[in-house]
Amino acid sequence: MKCKECSYEFSMREIQDGSPCPECARRAQAAAVQASRPTPVYVKPQEVVVVDFKMSFNSMVWFMVKAAFASIPALIIIAIVLAVLNLLFGGALLGLAGLLGR
Ligand SMILES: [Zn+2]
User: Fold this and answer.
1) Is residue 23 very low, low, confident or very high in pLDDT (cuts 50, 70, 90)?
2) Are residues 60 and 31 in the same domain?
3) What pLDDT sits at residue 67?
4) What is the pLDDT of residues 35-87, one digit of tens each?
5) Which residues keep their CB under 5 angstroms from ion ligand 1?
6) Are residues 26 and 59 in the same domain?
7) Assign residue 18 a region: left if phi > 0, alpha if psi is -120 to 50, beta otherwise?
């Protein structure tokens, strides 16, 4: 025997018990859960103004040491960028000077 709504095949035990279709009950519950779920609301990111902060001396020392070490790769990157700019513009200026014959 099959359910008229969803063509779920009843087991012999379910037919004997006269129980309602479990597949239809599952679908109804899923629909109810979906309906009760609140629609997501977009929350704008908030701007924060930092007026002051407290930091212990030791934490500050370690923070500064970390910042000093972190600046090493940053300086390497800046050196590479400056070297490339120097190659481009320095070469162009030398070429111009050569064209002018000076
Ligand atoms: Zn059913």
Assistant:
1) confident
2) no
3) 96
4) 888 888 888 999 999 999 899 999 999 999 999 999 999 999 999 999 999 99
5) 3, 5-6, 8, 21, 23-24
6) no
7) left
- Note whether residue 42 is domain-resident: no
**Distance in Å, CA 2 to ligand 1 centroid:** 8
In a domain, 45, yes or no: no
Backbone angles phi, psi at 5, to 5 degrees: -80, -50
Q: Would residue 20 count as lying in a domain?
A: yes
Tell how far the Cα of 33 is from the centroid of ligand 1, in angstroms.
18
Query: How far, in Å, CA of 93 to CA of 27, rounded?
Result: 76
Q: For residue 13, name the pLDDT band (cuts at 50, 70, 90).
A: confident
Nearest to 100 by CA among 85, 92, 87: 92
Q: Is 2 helix (H, G, I), strand (E, B) or coil?
A: strand
Residue type (1 letter), 49: V
What is the Å distance from ligand 1's center to 23 Cα? 5
